[in-house]
């Protein structure tokens, strides 16, 4: 598919997202990283709504729109093309013509700074998040992080000096960084985990990137990367190791989906900073054609991320959903990219689109009557249980064994496939082969459930997350929902599902080895989902 040609509407500054935000509360700084599994612990009392913090503004003020037509070709040697916002949601901002000198990002505009979003919704100092007022203050961006100047001020700083001005080769000391850049402004605190990197950061980035380019993904071409290529990603606050997780999924994902992408880390950013640190006649500036700037601390200032689901990606996702810029199969090009890289058969990759065809005819291809089998291929139900008994945080042993027995009985009786998956014993290709054909993914709250981003969305695709009763977190719940899978939070013999979800809570026992689960509750959910009774 060819991306839609640039319309007037695209050429006008479009400020999207967060325009209807009301109260902004935040869990700012309430995070601790769990070194072993990458899960986050938010400290709240059971049943208590998120607290409001005094230091967080309660009102998100939407900036005004600038009606400006962009020039197609810019000549940075003789002018300073103005910075435009293509899209914005807290923590996710797409700029054209963004500048950087000496570590400061510059918005060059004849419009006042007050007509742009407040910089705390755009960026931060990139420090790790801690739960102290000092740290919250230390993460607030200053003019050293982002500044607003007029084209005239830019010319005075980086234009030809007075002595050069008369020379025939007078030029601006602006140097172009060509193409599309994503700056991930976060420290390694949340980068070096499979969940946070692939299922949160890239999920949000992809929602924003596809949305801002208004890319539609028809099922027929869901395997094509129709969004403009991202040329480089920059991690200004982390080193080479900082964005890599221990099992190696992050680098696998990145290279599989974006084989041509260039990665710059803190030392590379430092080079760019140093090269532009001089003043006077050696002052220089980098001009970036297009930048998507992402910032975790800024995303947490948004009400959806900060007060509701605590997923940075949610800000980008809803900003684009609201203006109808995310089609049903928006994640599919990424998912198919990685599955193709992993050698997963095309037929398996296409389960979702095949099931959609059957659904249009009101046929459930998982429970076909014999006479329907000639019309539609039967789809196999594949249940995958992520077994965590070998690692910290797991089920009571007897409950685990009973669950496995019940799952086996259910699968034997109905001809379903059952996979008992211990991630640590399988190669990446083996894991991806299993999850790509999985209909029902099941397991105790933990990083293994991140694999849900590789499942085909279908009307019965399901994630069942087992929590210590009373405990709940949105990590996999929101992510599953955003990708079109139904999620169930099971508390032993009861469960919760959207829209009636419990408050986020980490009671005593949440991280323990005595998590109870009543197997028949789980198998009942599975049966009801397959039968189409739980939509
Ligand atoms: C560049 O940044 C450093 C550190 O913030 C500062 O000391 C220096 O004066 C800056 N250079 C210019 C030309 O502003
Ligand atoms: C879990 O549910 C079962 C079935 O209702 C019950 O017998 C068992 O006591 C429950 N376990 C816990 C720890 O509540």
Output the number of helix runs. 17
Alpha-carbon distance between the two ends:
32 Å
Beta-strand residue percentage: 15-25%
Largest sheet data: 8 strands, mixed
Mean pLDDT over the residues: 86
The structural class is alpha/beta
Number of domains: 3
Poorly predicted runs are 1-62
Which geometry do the CA atoms define?
elongated
What share of the residues lie within helices? 25-40%
* Radius of gyration (Å): 25 Å
Identify the bound ligands: 2-acetamido-2-deoxy-beta-D-glucopyranose
- The count of strands amounts to 16
Describe the model.
The chain has 17 helices and 16 strands. The chain has helices at 8-11, 133-139, 151-158, 162-165, 194-212, 249-257, 266-274, 296-299, 303-309, 312-322, 332-341, 346-349, 351-360, 397-414, 428-436, 475-482, 519-530; strands at residues 31-33, 40-42, 84-89, 92-101, 104-108, 146-149, 174-184, 232-234, 262-264, 285-294, 382-386, 417-421, 440-444, 462-466, 486-491, 494-496. Residues 1-62 have low confidence and may be disordered. It folds into three domains: 8-41, no CATH class; 70-322, no CATH class; 345-530, 3-Layer(aba) Sandwich (Rossmann fold). Helix 14 (397-414) runs parallel beside helix 17 (519-530). The longest helix has 19 residues, at 194-212. With 535 residues, the chain is an alpha/beta fold. The site of one 2-acetamido-2-deoxy-beta-D-glucopyranose has 4 residues, from loops.
